[in-house]
Amino acid sequence: MKKSKAIIAAGIIGLSALGAMVANHMQQPSLPTFTTAYAQPQQVTLPDVVLGNNQQYTSTLFKDKWSLVFFGYASCPDVCPTELYNLNNVASIMTEAGKTMPQVVFISVDPQRDSNDMLTSYAQFYNDEFIGITGDSSEIDKLVASFGVIYQKTFLANNGQYVSVPYSSPIPEEQRESYLINHSSRLYLVNPEGQYVAAFAPPHSAKKIAEDLLKL
Amino acid sequence: MQKSLITTLIATAIFSAAPTFAAEKANMMIMDAWVRAAPPSAKVQAAFFTVMNHSNKPIVLTDVEAQGFGRSELHLSGKKDGVMTMQKQQQITIPANTIFQFKPGGYHVMLLEPNKIAASGEVVNVSFTLLNGEKISAKMSVKRDNSKAKMDHSKMDHSKMDHANMKHN
Fold first, then answer.
1. How many angstroms away from the CA of B102 is the closest CA of chain A?
2. Nearest chain B Cα distance for residue A135, angstroms
3. Is the CATH number of domain B20-145 3.30.70.260?
4. What is the topology classification, in CATH, of domain A34-149+184-213?
5. Is the dihedral of CA A50, A55, A57, A58 positive or negative?
6. For A73, which residue in chain B has the nearest alpha carbon?
């Protein structure tokens, strides 16, 4: 009796493991085995959002092509330029290999200081094809939630200590132009169905990212 | 014709070999200094360089000023719980007899409140104050990390090729 229970339990565990494997395979049918990127256990269908000037970008932005999505802000002196220059290197590698580079979408989480017009020229400075956009914080936050991005305003308070607060929180008048933003610096891969499927964790090597993208 | 071609070649050679400057004092040297080219619409730029401390004592950088920028700060980028952070440093200590790098993703000088974003090919004068009150200045060339990749040749429009960086304005 005890033995048969154990066999049944083992069978259930075995079956559910098999089920999970099948489910995983079915959920991510188009994904190759990545070397560097972390595949999401399940695709995350991105919500409908409206970004850009005159509602220029909707969820169709992520349809019918692969995308690499990065969140940042234009007053970012080091991390964002490093990433954008790096993605331009990825584009070079892809072009040399004769493959299509995913579209690069740089989303500013700082609409209080960044406009869509300036973000367009900002992104194109690194590569003519890169897209730079922002939108209402409420729209951005929908995407942020899907990707699991964290971002906070941070500024040097009078006591010499850095203070981090939610983006929408009021901050001292004298900090309104000079605050920094701490932000997640993962690079997100979105499939042509508009689903978030994998992420690259920093530090990002152009060669390694391209290696995975070439498998798509 | 030939002369103009040669002139062009010389001009190209001068342009492509971005000048590198070194600033030297008896006990220290600043070398491989550069300011990262940024979009004209950017609000900040960053400067990177290598400091060689030849002395047997630490050298402490306490302040920095850059020509053409209202404010400059010593900064350190870092990663905490998967989030990129940046913090102003009150001072940075270069240990005795070491080569210390300011590089992307780490220590850098943040250049704020630009009169105008410094373009590729320009030179920015950056001056550091040391803890002992001395100053050392370095000339830093502005340059891109890489040139723009062309992603789709069928759509390539030569009128839009990247000559913007070549303006000596």
1. 11
2. 18
3. no
4. Glutaredoxin (3.40.30)
5. positive
6. B42
**Where does residue A54 rank: exposed (0-12), middle (13-18), buried (19+ CB within 10 A)?**
exposed
DSSP string for residues in B54-107: -SSS-EEEEEEEETTEEEEEEEEEEEETTEEEEEE-S-EEE-TTEEEEE-TTSE
For B24-76, write each residue's pLDDT tens digit: 776 899 999 999 999 998 989 999 999 999 999 999 999 999 999 999 999 99
Going by C-alpha positions, the residue among B32, B13, B9 that lies closest to residue B21 is B32
pTM of this structure: 0.80
Give me the residue spans of the domains in chain A. Answer: 1-30, 34-149+184-213
Is ipTM over 0.90? no
**Contact flag A128-B148 (C-beta cutoff 8 Å):** yes
Closest CA to A84 of A128, A38, A127: A127
| Predicted pLDDT at B20 | 66
The sign of the CA dihedral A185, A147, A163, B80 is negative
Contacts of A210 (CB under 8 A, 6+ apart): A90, A93, A94, A97
